[in-house]
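Ticket #4471: structure output looks truncated?

Reporter: J.K.
Steps to reproduce: submitted the chain below (141 residues) through the standard prediction queue, then opened the result file.
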Amino acid sequence: MADPIDGRPIGGNGSPGSIQGLLADALRETTDLARKEIALFRTEMSNNLRSLFLGLGMMVGAAVFAVVALLVLTDALVKWLATVVHSEALAALIVGAVFLVIGIGLALWGRSAMSLSTLTPTRTTRQVRQDARVLSERVSG
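Returned output as attached by the reporter:
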């Protein structure tokens, strides 16, 4: 029996050319598998780097909010010391505290997005292990 695509003999019929055909098919399938694994790795690393850059953006946002919080809190402290007990200082403290909470929240979110575990190519690793298991089953069986 011949392969309809390229006319080469297909293994399993006991003909002398079938071993060469099987070896050629195995080599071609291995090459195709390697190409697909590399493509999967590139895609996964691209997604992981996108996540890293998102985390960096969150850290920059956190820094901006932290600077604003520091300025507002400093202004609030100055106004509080100047007026001692008036409500303008209390309002400035509330606004500064809200900015500080936002900055801390963004910093924590950015830090979690930038963790090393998000850069690990887990799908590629799982796929390579599965392919190795399937190949070993084909060779042994």
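Triage note (M.O.): checked the attachment and the full token line is present. The first helix runs from residue 17 to 83.
Status: closed, working as intended.
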